[in-house]
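Table 4 source record.
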Amino acid sequence: MDTKVLYAIAITVATVSGGYYYFSGKSQKLDIESGRNMTYAAQGIQLTQTDEQGNLHIRAKIDRLEQDMQRKTSHLQHLDASLYQQGKVDATFSAQQGNGFNDNEKIVLSGDVVARKFGPQGQLDFRTDELTGYPKLRQIETNHQVVVQSPQAEFISQGLKANLNEGQYEFFNIRGKYAPSS
């Protein structure tokens, strides 16, 4: 066989194979699969999120974010977040770091954690070294020591469970001072 014939056959086979590969969608499937295995990182994040009606829901500032798309986890550094209800700041959270799980359905904040809830009786501050939050449910909890400060009281609790929607708080082994307003 002549080399020209071999060359023509090789080009034909390569063209048919490439066309089949391209038009069968396998090239796109490979791109999608490689995107799922990626880890993304960003710095200096300013986040604003609205609810289904277009009302402000969350505003956050994060120094650094790393997100693993395959494991659906994220790692946050220096987080400051505000939750809104009816156009007003309802609660704020700050922490040195945070870890999100299952597309941030659960977030564990750690390192100088401060959670602040605003209400008709004033603000209620929670200070701890670790706090677990469920943003969609608007619930927080910890089994670590929590320093609680309000206009009427200051106390230490060995744990906390709170439902921010209903304003219900559960504290454990409380020690502190209570001074009701006159």
